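Task 17 of the worksheet. Students: predict the tertiary structure of the chain below and write it out as structure tokens. Keep your answer in the requested format; marks are given for formatting as well as content.
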Amino acid sequence: MNLNKLIAKAIIESKIPITRIAEKSGISRQHIYKICKGEKNISSLNLEKLCKAINISPSSLYEGQINQTSEYRIPVLGVIPAGIPIEAIEDILDYEEISPEMLNGGKEYFALKIKGDSMSPNYLDGDVVIFLKQDYAENNDDCCVYVNGYDATFKKIRINNKTGILTLQPINSSYEPLFFNEEEIKNLPVRIIGKAIEIRRKI
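Model answer:
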């Protein structure tokens, strides 16, 4: 596991909100997200700042002394609409546990909270959905999709192999589907970022 993944794991296990870590370290939330996603290399100075903010020593990252449990915790990153697309919020709302076996083969996951009823009755407002990170889908997969690059929505995927038309289909018939041709998919862009694999619902 590389250093970015180690610090990301340590941040998740600390259960300290990203906003608090940003305040304590002096590193912006956006920069912390990019470090955790591997989009930015982490400098030795920033490593020290982040470790101090989450109350661990840098050496513990290399020595594998971060707390290990039988479950692996992933953050619920924010609210994703199940209606018209709006910008996904990247604040950590909560944590969900997944089994270590789910990580076999280098698989990665994220969790998002549903807002709205366009995917009911299968998915309800307030449900937490676990997504397998992937940038492709098969027909009738329920996926998290970025539209316009940053607006996230949750819909059923329909792909017409003859016309290249991508349909984002609500399950609730009260909502209209969204259609995108090949040019729109490329230029907006429209991008699949994960496939729904599990619902966590509180009664």
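Marker's comment: The radius of gyration is 18 Å. The first strand starts at residue 72 and ends at 81.
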